[in-house]
Amino acid sequence: MAQEIEEKVIEAKKASIILASVNTGTKNAALEAMAQALDDNRDQILAANQKDVETAEKLKRKGELSQALVDRLKVSDSKISGMIDGIRDVIELKDPVGETIAALELDQGLELFQVSSPIGLIGVIFESRPDVVPQVMSLCLKSGNATIFKGGSEALNSNRVIFDLLKEAAESVKGMPAGAFQLMETREEVNDILSMDAYIDLLIPRGSNAFVKYMQDNTKIPVLGHADGICHVYVDEDADLTKAYDVCFDSKVQYPAVCNAMETLLVHEKVAEKFLPTMAKRFDEAGVEMRCDEQSYSILEMIDFLKSILRATEEDWSTEYNDLILSIKIVESMEEAIEHINTYGSHHTDAIITENKFKKKDFTDLVDSSSVMINASTRFADGFRYGKGAEVGISTNKIHARGPVGMEGLLIYKYVLVGDGERVADYAGPEARKFTHRKINRKASDVLDTTLE
Predict the structure, then answer these.
(1) CA 273 to centroid of chain Cα atoms
(2) Which CATH superfamily is domain 2-95+117-224+401-411 in?
(3) Which of 175, 186, 197, 259 is the most buried (most CB within 10 A)?
């Protein structure tokens, strides 16, 4: 098994070199072929997904799989349309490969260019959601990166069908290298690739806290991702409560099984008695279980119609539910809310509801998260909604890429120095030439016979 996966990785690594130089027209043609393949084979995808869902439902009844994972697994006709739209959105994005980031004249006739380039071979390991495959493959293809995928065993049939359709479609386009996209299907293969830092340039895990931490702790390969999605909404004393009701409801209920859904609601004590009963009624009607601190519990326990009010424990503040469960805490000030967020949060996405312009700025400056929302739902933290076409994941890292990561997170850069026989020796000694180090408004393609795009 180890030898077989190593052969796949080596093949993909070799193909990544060729893919890095494929022109924009060829890449876009491959993307369109991929989108068309999904559209032409909807029944095949849905049939494969139905097998996975039936198996997953059995595992859920045995307590071996959560409802959140089952929800993420399901593919509908509208989800396939979303996959297709996502690929076509990537076609419309500008090809970032070969773009000149900066240009500097070192001396007359000696020019240095910083040029964007693909990272190389990227390993993407995810749980459940089959729509990750077209999202990530399309972004990697457009950015010139080869990719090796591993989906969760619960989505085995769905992933295999979608991957095979996309791979065959992409490789059918003249100029596209074979082997740039590979699929793993066993847990053993994942453990094997963790030691392949000689070939794999970046790992992007998407899954549970324990899953991501396992990846981070067991490889030398750089890992881009987030371990938790503990997101907060803070309702300030200066909030417009009409906005607050809608934003809080959307943040929790619109799709609770994802990492950008609200897990903790923080409410200023001056508006708590007015805000919480109405808000709790809406949550209750939607089936949300509310785990309250002592103050919020004392407000809500007197309301007869509420069906699911519990007392919160210390563990609740650091729990990602991915379900219709919400912890609620009353705070004395915005400063207390910020301290709570920075202490218990995951640096993912946090929101404030306020009309106070000074608090908007302070919250934005002081909350240490990759996305900060002002009077808007946490659910907007998404690569597609951020205009990236799609996303490879959401990163809480503070290096390379942060927040919803699109193609910009799949790029690095190289330096290209263009000269005419210059020697370092000419810049040493008493008669040395001097560097000008002057910024210039030129592109690498301006001085090369062919463009780097």
Answers:
(1) 37
(2) Aldehyde Dehydrogenase; Chain A, domain 1 (3.40.605.10)
(3) 259
- Average confidence (pLDDT) over 371-386: 92
In 254-308, which residue ranges form alpha helices assigned H by DSSP? 269-285, 294-300
- φ/ψ of 56, rounded to 5, equals -65, -40
Q: Given this model, what pLDDT does residue 389 score?
A: 67
CATH 1.10.3720.10 fits 231-386, yes or no: no
Place of tokens 């069906």: 307
- Contact assessment for residue 344 and residue 323, using Cβ atoms and an 8 Å cutoff: no
306: pLDDT strictly greater than 60: yes
Buried b (16+ CB within 10 A) or exposed e, 195-233: ebeebbbbbbbbbbbebbebbeeebebbbbbbbbbbbbb
The span from the CA of 199 to the CA of 183, in Å, is 16
Q: Which single residue is written with the structure tokens 């297709």?
A: 84
Residue % of the chain over a pLDDT of 70 = 97
- What's the Cα-to-Cα distance from 412 to each of 18, 100, 157, rounded to whole Å? 17, 12, 34
Backbone angles phi, psi at 410, to 5 degrees: -105, 10
Sorted by where each begins, the domain ranges of the chain are: 2-95+117-224+401-411, 231-386
Task: Look up tokens 């919250």; give the residue.
Answer: 363
Return the closest-CA partner of residue 321 out of 288, 367, 368, 293: 288
The letter for the amino acid at 332 is E
**Rounded to an integer, what distance in angstroms lies between the CA atom of residue 438 and that of residue 103?**
9
The pLDDT of 380-392, averaged and rounded, is 81
Per residue in 95-133, is it b (16+ CB within 10 Å) or e — as a string?
bbbbbbeebbbbbeebbbbebbbbbbbbbbbbbbbbbbb
